[in-house]
Amino acid sequence: MNLPVEPDARPAPPDFMSVRQVAEYLQLNEKKIYSLLKTGDLPGTKITGKWLFPRELVDRWVVDSAHGGLLNDRLLIGGGDDPLLERLVLEFSHHLGARALTGHHPSGTREGLELLQAGRIDASLLHWGPEHEAHTRHPALLRQYPKHPQWLLLRLFRRHSGIMYDPRREGAAESLRELLSGSGPGRARWSLCREGSGNYRFFEEACGREGHRPPEARIALSARDAAAQIRMDLADCAPGPYSVAREFGLGFLPLGWEAVDLVVPRHVYFRHLLQQLIDRFTSQHGQETAQQLQGYDLSDCGRIVWGHD
């Protein structure tokens, strides 16, 4: 007796799908796929004239787009380092407990944007030069990344930045030019964040205005790491915000103000976790925390400064 043959199970889609395959996978027509590509919503890449869609990223995009999806209970922030952000995120995390995952992973401005582009984080802290040029510089930097049409820029705060230095060092210089021009045994030992960080960019341009290039230096992972190196007598000075200098009891030579923004994908902007975090900045407690650290202006906190059109 011949038993009926069960039809073969439908084969799994390939790891990298074509337009036709991803349309079938998502049960959409191909015209809609091209529309999603045009708006930058659907994760895909063009290779030798043909679109390919990594199935892993498509799956993640579907989950993240779903109302009440798992990732609505996650808010991971990368990019630049900042004491005020760090404190408020930590407090928020303790408040939420196991109900949601929040965290701050300081990685530098450029690396933060690369992580955001790859979908590894949910938002990224950005500062890229002096405050009065942020309205053109920040959007220009974002436009270098393919997903920029999906992103918004939220102003978090302005902060005072300059040179942190060891107050125990004899003959502390009164200007950046003096620090950069020193030579011999009394020459300042510098600690600098990596190229691609906002701190390095701010310092590099300040050096350029004095006719110098950034000096040889120890590498720091963040402004706070640089401050720790100064306290451990591994360096004499480093660029950083006033709030970090105050945290570590360092001297401070002011150079100007930075605008510090948060880069947020449009769908993340509406997450309740992000809105609650912004509320913490604008709350009385957030304002008091900024006053304790000093060197902040939160008057525009939460305002969309780019990407709302």
Structural write-up:
This protein has 309 residues and is α+β, with helices and mostly antiparallel strands. It folds into two domains: 16-64; 73-309, D-Maltodextrin-Binding Protein, domain 2. It has 13 helices and 13 strands. The chain has helices spanning 19-26, 30-38, 55-65, 83-96, 109-117, 134-142, 176-181, 198-209, 223-231, 242-247, 266-269, 272-282, 284-293; strands spanning 16-17, 45-47, 50-54, 74-79, 101-104, 123-126, 151-165, 190-193, 217-220, 237-241, 251-265, 296-297, 304-306. The strands form three sheets. Strands 4, 5, 6, 7, 10, 11, 12 and 13 form an eight-stranded mixed beta sheet that branches. Strands 1-3-2 form a three-stranded antiparallel beta sheet. A two-stranded parallel sheet has the order 8-9. The chain is elongated. The model has no long low-confidence stretch (mean pLDDT 89).
